[in-house]
Amino acid sequence: MPRGRYSLHDPHDHTPLGEEHFHCAPGPSGWRYVSQLTTPSGDHAGSVDLALDELGRPIRLELHAASWQVRGAAIDGVTWVRTDPTGTHATEGNAPAHAFTGRSPAFLIATARLLRLTPDSPATRVRLVAFTEPVLAPRTLDQSWALRNRETHATDNGLLTVDEYQVTALDTGEQHTVHIAGDVVLAAPGIELEDLDSPPSI
User: Fold this and answer.
1) pLDDT digits (tens, 9 = 90+) for 175-186
2) Which of 62, 138, 178, 195 maximizes the CB count within 10 A of its CB?
3) Is 201 helix (H, G, I), strand (E, B) or coil?
4) Cα separation of 56 and 4, whole Å?
5) DSSP state, residue 172
6) Pairing between strand 124-132 and 99-101?
7) Distance from C-alpha of 110 to C-alpha of 124, rounded to nearest angstrom
8) How far apart, in Å, are the Cα atoms of 154 and each of 57, 143, 181?
9) Cα–Cα distance measured from residue 3 to residue 33, given in angstroms and rounded to the nearest whole number
10) pTM of the prediction?
11) DSSP states of 88-148 as a string?
12) DSSP at 4
């Protein structure tokens, strides 16, 4: 069960956004990721709870940020309920998308597990619903993912396979690189792995 800490920053101007303390593990039905978010000053800023089925589809998502809450799942595309801080207004949404995304590294792992790319796979288009802090506003976006390289490295705990993905935002053409080992993001725009207590799950 990998457990560790990511630091988050603005990918454009590198302003610190806080930290994400996480643990994740494969389970009998798929994979689960749970984390707590803190601000740069150390205050609690929200949480992520994401469960995937064995095919990488989101069977449960719960996000908290600035007292806003989102609960979602893959139903008729993806469906979610977004609740305001007072708890009096809940808005249901639905989109013909494959999965969810957001600032958390969990969503990069989830998309990679959903697509199951190999180095021989062509670039694959995926439609995602992103929830943006601080109010978890939903936005549908299209990305293209390609697995550009797969390398195996020797470590004290055995061999570690690192996948290098090229992710393209299809609305702007902006490209970036994501490095993933098992179910841990090693590096991505705005994300740095600071601590890892145990090796990634295969």
Assistant:
1) 999 999 999 999
2) 178
3) coil
4) 22
5) T
6) parallel
7) 15
8) 31, 32, 13
9) 10
10) 0.95
11) S-EEEEEES-SEEE-SSHHHHHHHHHHH---TTSPPEEEEEEEEETTTTEEEEEEEEEEEE
12) E
Q: Which residue do the tokens 């199951």 mark? A: 116
* C-alpha to C-alpha distance for 187 and 45, rounded to whole angstroms: 22
- Tokens read off for 2: 């990998």
In the chain, where the domains are located: 3-9+16-196
At 46-102, the pLDDT tens digits run 999 999 999 999 999 999 998 999 999 999 999 999 999 888 899 999 999 999 999
CB within 8 Å of 119: residues ≥ 6 apart: 147, 148, 149, 150
CA distance 137 to 102: 10
Residue 98: how many CB atoms within 10 A of its CB?
A: 20
Q: Which two tokens stand for residue 175?
A: 């490209």
